[in-house]
Amino acid sequence: MLQIDNVTKTYSHSQGPVRAVGDVSLTVNAGAFVAVQGPSGCGKSTLLLMAGGLLRPDGGAVNVDSTDPYGLKPDVRAEFRARRIGFVFQQFHLVPYLTIRENILAPGMAIATPDAETRSRADELIERFGLADRQHHVPGKLSSGERQRTALARALLNRPSLLLADEPTGNLDHDNADIVLNDLKDFAKEGGAVLLVTHDDRAVSYADSVVRMQAGKIIRD
Ligand SMILES: Nc1ncnc2c1ncn2[C@@H]1O[C@H](COP(=O)(O)OP(=O)(O)O)[C@@H](O)[C@H]1O
Ligand SMILES: [Mg+2]
Q: Which residue's alpha carbon is nearest to atom 4 within ligand 1?
């Protein structure tokens, strides 16, 4: 589902270039839950953004479901992302002035005004993630766990084939982290592909396979 071949990324800084990712290859098959673990600054977020069609690598290739997102025109790439890839981040990235339900429906808006089927998909996710009582509240009124479940529901709205999660449990207590990690696991069990990047040892125990990263490189597979 996700194939990354020898990707590299160097950022330019006033103090000179910083190689964030050097020559990393990784495959995540449908039904697999892969975790990349490594210390802060080792290049995990950079790798995830490149995997998700959000940051063009300097070298190497990315394929999502046999499509190179960087080979698509920007608007086509945005639609491809909205349909095929779900993102979950540590900081949730919910829209503060939209309700929980509107946040969950937001990726539907990227494609078209949500139709009845999309709205019923949102309702199903709201039920599944225990958000029914909170759906008409704004994110600021919710707990961190509820906000991350909202972000996960939003990520799943369009039934993506790939879920990319960047430190999704970084702001959660143990119980809420367990809930979210089990949801990622369920997504993989249902045939999706999950790539989780994190520094958290506990989080990686949910994955089928763990890749260790250090200073922009994979050190152990
Ligand atoms: N937008 C950016 N501009 C310049 N340097 C960056 C940028 N994003 C990340 N970096 C640098 O790239 C390296 C890897 O960062 P990152 O991918 O965020 O690692 P991680 O997610 O593992 O903490 C770090 O040295 C970081 O400072
Ligand atoms: Mg990071």
A: 11
| Record: fold of 2-220 | Rossmann fold (3.40.50)
Residues ≥6 apart with Cβ < 8 Å to 169: 90, 148, 176, 177, 180, 181, 198, 200, 203
Per-residue pLDDT at 114: 79
| pLDDT per position as a tens digit, 109-147 | 766 677 889 999 999 999 999 999 999 999 999 999 999
Name residues contacting ligand 1 (CB within 6 A). 11, 13, 18, 20, 38, 40-46
Query: In the prediction, which pLDDT does 47 show?
Result: 98
Closest residue by CA, ligand 1 atom 8: 46
CA 88 – ligand 2 centroid, Å:
12
Q: What is the structure's pLDDT at 25?
A: 97
Domain boundaries, the chain: 2-220
Distance between CA atoms of residues 107 and 40, nearest Å: 29
Distance CA 188, CA 170 (A): 21
Count Cβ neighbours within 10 Å for each residue of 199-215 and write b for 16 or more, e otherwise.
bbeebbebbeebbbbee
pLDDT at residue 65, as a whole number: 94
Residues of the chain with pLDDT under 50: none
> Max alpha carbon distance in the chain (Å)?
53
